[in-house]
C-alpha cells in the first residue's frame, strides 16, 4: 500500500526511461509559472503562443508550415494558435500574391506593439528568472537539450530501440 505521505517521485526514480515525461512535466510547470507574468500584457496570450509571436517578429510573414518547421510544432497546433491570435487581433492571415494557395501569417500592427511591449517588459524578466533558476548550468543545459534534439533528428528513438532489440537477440 502506498504511503500517501511518501515523497517518492516515480518519474525521477525511473531514470532515463521517463526522460520525455519529466521534460514534459517540467515544461508544463515552467509555462504555468510564467503565465502570471505574461498575463501582465493585454490581451492575454498563452505562454505557448509567445514563441510563435517571436518567430513572426524575427522572420516576418510566414506560412503555417514554415512556422511549424521553425518552432518544431505540428501544423495543427500552429493553425489553432494562429486562429486564436488572429481572433484577438495580434496576427493577420493573408493570401500570398505570387501563389493564391499559400496563406501568410504576419504580425498585425497590434501584434507588433504587443511583441515590443513583451520584449521590453515580461520576456526579459522571464529570461532573467529562468537564468537565475539555472544559475551556473544554463548554457550547458541548453547544449545538452540541443544534443538530444540533434540526436533524435539523426536517428529516431524507435530506430535505436530496434537496434537494441537486435543486439539482444544476437
TrEMBL record:
One Pfam family linked to the record: MarR_2
Residue span(s) of domain HTH marR-type: 16-154
UniProt source species: Chelatococcus daeguensis
Protein name per Swiss-Prot or TrEMBL: Transcriptional regulator
Molecular function terms from GO: DNA-binding transcription factor activity
Domain of life, source organism: Bacteria
SUPFAM superfamilies: Winged helix' DNA-binding domain
Amino acid at each position: 500500500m502506498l504511503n500517501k505521505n511518501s515523497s517518492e517521485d516515480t518519474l525521477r526514480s525511473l531514470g532515463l526511461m521517463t526522460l520525455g515525461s519529466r521534460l514534459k512535466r517540467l515544461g508544463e510547470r515552467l509555462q504555468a509559472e510564467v503565465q502570471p507574468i505574461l498575463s501582465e500584457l493585454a490581451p492575454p496570450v498563452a505562454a505557448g503562443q509567445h514563441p510563435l509571436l517571436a518567430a513572426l517578429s524575427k522572420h516576418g510573414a510566414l506560412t503555417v508550415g514554415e512556422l511549424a518547421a521553425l518552432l518544431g510544432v505540428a501544423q495543427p497546433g500552429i493553425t489553432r494558435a494562429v486562429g486564436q491570435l488572429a481572433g484577438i487581433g495580434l496576427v493577420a492571415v493573408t493570401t500570398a500574391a505570387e501563389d493564391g494557395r499559400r496563406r501568410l501569417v504576419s504580425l498585425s500592427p497590434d501584434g507588433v506593439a504587443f511583441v515590443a511591449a513583451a520584449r521590453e517588459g515580461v520576456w526579459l524578466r522571464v529570461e532573467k528568472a529562468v537564468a537565475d533558476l539555472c544559475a551556473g548550468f544554463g548554457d550547458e543545459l541548453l547544449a545538452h537539450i540541443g544534443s538530444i534534439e540533434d540526436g533524435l533528428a539523426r536517428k529516431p528513438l524507435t530506430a535505436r530501440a530496434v537496434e537494441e532489440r537486435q543486439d539482444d537477440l544476437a
